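User: Can you fold this complex?
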Amino acid sequence: MGGLRKRDWWMVFLFVLPVVVILLAISIFPMVYSFYLSLCKWDIGMGGQRTFIGAGNYLRLFSDARFFNSLKNTGRVLLFGVGTQFALGLSLALLLNRSFRGRSLVVTLFLLPMMISPVVVGCIWKIIYHYQYGPLNYLLNLLGIRSVNWLGSGSISPYSIVLADIWEWTPFMVITLLAGLQAIPDDLYEAARVDGANRWQIFSGVVFPLLRPVVIIAILIRVMDAFKIFDLVVLLTMGGPGQASESVAFYNYLTGFKYFSMGYASAMSYVQLAVIVAIANVFLRSFKGRAVV
Amino acid sequence: MRKFLLFLFAFVLLASVAYASPVKLVVVGDAGHNLKPFEWYAKDLKEKFDVELEVIGVPFGELYEKEKVELIAGTGAFDIMIVFPKFLAEFAANGWLYPLDEFVAKLDPKLDDVTPGYRDFYCKYGGKLYALPYDGDVLSLYYRKDLLENEEERKAFKEKYGYDLKVPETWDEYLDVAEFFTRKAGEKLAGEVLQRDFYGTAYYGQKDQIFAWWGNIFASLGGVYFDEETMEPAINSEAGVKALEIMKEIHKYCPPDVLAYGYEELKDVFLNGDCFMVIQWPCVGKKGADPAQSKIVGKIGVSHVPGVKKDGEIYYRAMMPCGRVLAIAAQSKDPWKAYQVIHYLSVVTSLDDVSTPETGLDPYRYSHFAHPEAYEMFANVEDAKIYLAGVQKNMEKGYPEMVLPGTVEYEETLGVALTKALTGELDPKSALDEAAQAWRDILERFGKEQQKALYQELVKGWKAVGLW
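Assistant: Here's the predicted assembly.
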């Protein structure tokens, strides 16, 4: 590089310029501008003036009960949704990590929910959850269980969203963990068996440590995705009843694009970003510290 | 030279093709049955006005933000917009809509034929005309007249409540009738064993419109949105709390998932024959007469929404939520052609559009009420007359929806608070106090003085036409 002539430097600059311009325009500028907005009061309902208020929006967030409610609902999706997806995904991946007739077909069928458009998933579950005519309550009734108010109850509707999310995204866990399992060489299993390890010892001593990086990445991807859950909320409950099932992303959308409080919505986005970056860091540290491969 | 002539010829050819092409106008509205007229008359409109329509449907609850985002950004994405009056004021105040007054002299929209509520408040802002009416929404009471007339039920009702079973006129009667007809599967209704639960009533439970179902009660108790002088929210007044307490009682006789109900669910629970009565928009009456959409054809009665008894008279007020109007974006490519299109739909074809069960559009012109024979879905003209008289009865006592800038947010925060009380999360007074505080915040953000002036102007207008 040190030997480049001045003319060559210009060429380098010219080649890099489009990328820099595009990056500045579509990534850096919106980030900087939205951060600036988060420090301003800007309600554009009536073409309102933008006023710099410093940390005012961030302080308002900490006293906004609706924001904390949405955070709690998002937390439910992370804890119960992603947690169940991982548990189910790992179990199914272990079952599918052996050869049997029709395995390819079974794997493909398992992937179907993930392949369906999220809007269609929402519509399907809206029908499934219908109180009077939904197949889920019909089945429960056949088992002698009373109909459940899946979408009209403030205490149940957040979990109805979690259930639909589990159905939609467990296949992602299955396929990712299955790929990880298949990357483990057979001779390691054989060596463990030769050493007299039982199934649990093989799983806990060989399989899981080797699978850990894949597990961390799979959970991290799902956590980041689930933190932004929006489509199922809109399609199933619109955040209702009232605000009972609002997620952070949905409340952020309402603030920005229904109430048009752009400064406040930007501040909310940055808090979301901070939370997700913190979670990602925790996962990545554990990835660095304990990775075996 | 030959090349130049060839180029010139091609240029002239292209220019003439472009000149001869119809103007393309983009229409946006809430998706579904209310956009159908734009499709039905697309050919006529092309022939008459040389316009080609591109129709974009967006979900009912998202129309405001979809339109506003494009208007703020000044993209010029839309020419004709279906607008709900609750956001017309905001759009007009920001200069995003094209004032129509200049066109009125050229092509008369026959506003004298439009009932006052829709004409004066849903289409105008600051004295200027910004839209033409398209849909005359007012809430009305629909009930199962076959069950009401059933001798067995009448006898049982009188035994239980001590007075004759009749169309409920007061909220107390409404509660009695709702309670009486709420039955479990396996119980009998009009002599027949029910295969599934049957409910006394239901309401629109989603947070965007629930205010209107509470509003019917609130308004009949004399409630107002704001104190005119101080602009202090009045929704947490005695009338507001009492209305919410009544609504909590009504909630007991509704399907358990009623808080998830939007327009479709509320329509379906009634037209599927699972509920005795609902307060709904007028289109439910005409759809209920259509065998393709209703299981209770010929069994529906219509009346005014209940009220309260004062000095021996029933005082009732029917909320007028939604009430679609047709507006033209200030950045429209061709406002005059767009006006011709909306004029055609608001004046020329409007009777056809409001009198078919294919749309959710409801009568808003005196001429719509004067032609019962047009409502062919009813078994006979007499039935159509009864339907129209019922709607008109509510319209005369209509309680206008607030049309201040910020109304979308006012209504939704109120909806959230109402739901909190209905789910038992808060008591009615605390819930409404919370909503009132949210309203104060919105007032401040939109400018209290400006809002006050607009509200006072609105009230003055409502009073002038007898709606206040």
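DSSP finds twelve helices and two strands in chain A. Chain A touches chain B through 32 residues (CB under 8 Å).
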